[in-house]
Design brief:
InterPro entries: Homeodomain-like_sf (IPR009057), Myb_dom (IPR017930), SANT/Myb (IPR001005), TTF1-like (IPR053078). One of its GO terms (cellular component) is nucleolus. One of its GO terms (biological process) is termination of RNA polymerase I transcription. The protein is mainly α and about 350 residues long. About 60% of the residues lie in helices and about 0% in strands.
Length: about 350
């Protein structure tokens, strides 16, 4: 089908399709459109966001079955073929003959590209190499000076994943301050977030009259988007004296402080009510995995707070209340809290 028709048909399944490049649309028309229509017939919506445990297991199954079918002897060879130049032609031929794209995405209602990236993350042995040694950090600085931000090349030279080398370099590239945040740094962070959010809102709503400059209040801070994914490496560059993870943690603490408006949510009677509401809402979701929970909606159960705040409270609750919680599934933890902890909290209230 032609490009315009493909884009039009994909829009039903992918709302942000207008921002996707033509070349990606062509690939999606071939790899995804038929699958999406099939899922629609079964009443299954196309998903985005974090992969569930069930989806990860399906990817594992799909990869195992493809390896058995083709005789390729490892997932690394299948998903990182460029690391094996002597086998490259044979692997590419087998992938084409046995419809790799269709097989890898079987049973998963997501765009093929996202499934492929997830599989690469799961099966890359370079993702699980632990802390960087001093020697590795020096090598990383040397390679970056030679090759710039060509993380693909650097990752191959260091036998680490692309994401790992990019993030580690972002941490060590400049003199980072590890002490308390100064007023100047905090203001830089606020300005950086405002700037990237302004760009984001303008690109998503080009016709909108909304402007972050219209008000001197912190109304913009309440917008739901602000505690969702932000380009932290870009924000890190604007702040200058902190690396991206510090910026993210500080921003979450600023949001929590602002959105709770100083209300003592987790003290006394309010604290008991908040825990009771949280357990009840989690139980009502019937979720099998934490990634299936809509944490944004759930934040309303204990007040107008970011999802990271609710997730942190849930973590404390399970650690302090559920024996052997590490051995339990997500749903078993919720069932235990509902059956054992809830009556205890209600009695106390």
């Amino acid at each position: 089908i032609d490009l315009d028709t493909a884009r039009q048909e994909l829009e039903e399944f992918i709302p942000h399709v207008k921002n996707i490049s033509d070349s990606s649309i062509k690939k999606m028309a071939g790899r995804d459109l038929t699958r999406f229509k099939e899922f629609k017939k079964q009443g299954i919506a196309v998903k985005f966001g974090r992969f569930t445990q069930k989806e990860n297991q399906q990817i594992q199954k799909n990869v195992d079955e493809f390896l058995a079918l083709t005789g390729i002897d490892s997932a690394e060879k299948l998903l990182f073929t460029s690391r094996y130049p002597e086998d490259k032609d044979t692997i590419h031929r087998l992938k084409t003959e046995h419809h790799f794209c269709e097989k890898i995405s079987e049973g998963i209602p997501r765009p093929w590209r996202l499934i492929y990236y997830r599989a690469r993350k799961m099966f890359d042995p370079n993702n699980y190499k632990g802390r960087y040694t001093k020697e590795e950090k020096e090598k990383l600085k040397k390679y970056q000076a030679l090759y710039g931000n060509d993380w693909k090349k650097i990752s191959e030279l260091m036998s680490r994943s692309n994401l790992s080398v990019a993030m580690k370099f972002s941490e060590i590239k400049s003199a980072i301050n590890y002490g308390p945040w100064t007023k100047e740094e905090t203001q830089k962070l606020m300005n950086a977030v405002k700037e990237v959010m302004r760009k984001k809102l303008q690109s998503e709503n080009p016709g909108s009259v909304f402007s972050l400059e219209q008000s001197n209040t912190d109304l913009w801070i309440d917008r739901e988007l602000l505690y969702q994914a932000l380009p932290w490496t870009e924000i890190e560059t604007k702040v200058g004296s902190r690396y991206w993870r510090q910026c993210k943690q500080k921003w979450n603490s600023i949001l929590t402080s602002k959105l709770t408006r100083g209300q003592q949510l987790y003290r006394g009677i309010n604290g008991l009510k908040a825990k009771i509401n949280l357990i009840k809402r989690l139980y009502e979701t019937r979720a099998e995995d934490a990634s299936e929970v809509n944490w944004d909606e759930l934040s309303n159960a204990i007040g107008d707070v970011p999802r990271a705040y609710v997730q942190a409270k849930f973590y404390k609750l399970k650690v302090s209340s559920v024996p052997l919680w590490k051995r339990k599934t997500f749903s078993e933890i919720i069932d235990y809290l509902h059956e054992k902890k809830l009556p205890e909290l209600e009695k106390k209230l």
